Amino acid sequence: MDAREAVAKALETHGPIEQIYWIGCGGSLIDLIPADYMMNAESAKVESRAYTAKEFVVATPKKLGAHSMVVALSHSGGTPEVVEALKLAEERGAFIWVMTSGEGSAVTQGPWDTYIYVWEDETPQRELDSAQAIMVCAELMKAQEGFDAYDAVYEGIEKLDGIIAGAKAKVESELCKRFAELCTKHDFFYIMGSGAAFAQTYGFSICSLMEMQWQSCCYIHSAEYFHGPFEVTEPGVFYFLQMSSGPSRVEDERALAFVKTHTDTYMVLDALAYGMDAVDARVRAYLEPIMIYYMNVKLRAARGKVFDHDPHIRRYMGIEQY
């Protein structure tokens, strides 16, 4: 059951939908955050909140119930916290839709609807989890309150495959080598971003670098940078800025202007310069995290080669009890 079918069924069996909760852990949660951002920015009728799964269980929203839609994501399909959250949502009578690439996994075993995606290089973005989550937003708003940018969402998603292909070549030629070299000189650095793209600022830090490369780093929101963190900015401190192509771009531009004059070590990944200018300005902010993710993959791979650190190596995850 894809996003369009899921929304149609949710409205038929649980409508009207008054709340939508996005549930995941780590990289899975990161892929849902842009949809949460979109719903809060665009919908006047549906409350939206993204939760790490355990937090959803221990601090369950009181409004969770028959008019709630829960969208859960577990790439592997075996995340225990997500399974626990799904059981709770089922008990509370919510409509549940689960995405996973783990066919036959634990998250597919409950009395809820699922969407199985195949994560391969040739898989179109429209079939993958992040785009499907954005489609949920578009379909739900169109059905319940109208959404003028509905067609623009789907047109933008169709453009992503070409945008990503071009952006991969561009990031390899422009950023990868320097990023890897700077990692050899900086045991710690800061990553900044804003808007829906902040999901990937967060993801680049905790998943691509801390988890997959054992690289110490910190993520900072571009607007919050000026409310404390900028005090540590000085020559020799490395900043990596992911610039949005949407309304929050002004926050990134302000941060960049300060960084340029207060440190000698920074890099910029500008979504507008990496192809997002081809997408309708009304929706590109919600889709750019998908493109940025693939740039982050290229950057972590470049670092991995220099440090001889395969991104699949773990020392705790799935090895120790925790």
Portion in beta strands:
15-25%
| Total count of helical runs of at least 4 residues | 9
Strand order of the largest sheet: 2-1-3-4-5
Low-confidence stretches: none
User: How many beta-strand segments?
Assistant: 9
CATH topology of the largest domain, which one?
Rossmann fold
CATH superfamily of the largest domain: Glucose-6-phosphate isomerase like protein, domain 1
> What would you call the structural class?
alpha/beta
Shape assignment: globular
For the report, how would you describe the main beta sheet?
Answer: 5 strands, parallel
Percent of residues in helices comes to 40-55%
Count structural domains.
2
Strand-and-helix sequence, N→C? HEHEHEHEEHHEHEEHEH
Q: Which whole number gives the mean pLDDT? A: 97
Describe the protein's architecture and organization.
The chain is α/β, with parallel strands linked by helices and 322 residues long. 47% of the residues lie in helices and 16% in strands. The chain contains nine helices and nine strands. It has helices spanning 3-14, 27-42, 53-58, 80-91, 129-144, 150-185, 198-213, 249-262, 284-307; strands at 19-24, 47-52, 68-73, 95-100, 113-116, 188-193, 216-221, 238-243, 265-270. The two termini are 34 Å apart.
